[in-house]
Amino acid sequence: MRKTIARRLTQSKQEVPHIYLTVDVQLDKLLKLRGELNAALEPQGVKLSVNDLLIKALAKALIQVPKCNNIRAAPPACRTWACSASSSSRRSSTRRRA
């Protein structure tokens, strides 16, 4: 089963066109909000990461502007409700398949 999963992931990466969008953003206000939220949620044992907040913001943005979430199959573009986002410690990036 793992070999099948690995083979299909490799096949997808090789055969499906990908577009990566990297954006540098100032997170000062987000980090301040995160600190405030984490302080309020500490008694409950909840700790939010920057990634948690970025994914929430991305999901809300895609709901407001669903045309931004497209995949290219055969023309015309097909809309999908799935999204992918990731962030690293060095910089934030939003990855969108196209």
Fold and architecture overview:
This protein has 98 residues and is an alpha+beta fold. It has one domain. 44% of the residues lie in helices and 18% in strands. It is built from three helices and five strands; from the N terminus they run H-E-H-H-E-E-E-E. It is extended, with a radius of gyration of 17 Å.
What does the main sheet amount to? 3 strands, antiparallel
Shape: extended
Please tell me the total number of domains: 1
- Separation of the first and last Cα atoms: 28 Å
The sequence of SSEs as H and E is HEHHEEEE
> Helicity range of the residues?
40-55%
Biggest sheet: strands side by side, in what order?
A: 1-5-4
Radius of gyration: 17 Å
Strand content: 15-25%
Average residue pLDDT = 78
Short description:
The chain is α+β, with helices and mostly antiparallel strands and about 100 residues long. The protein has helices at about 1-15, 30-40, 50-65, and strands at about 20, 70, 80, 85, 90-95.
Top keywords for this entry?
single chain; 3 helices; two-stranded antiparallel ribbon; extended
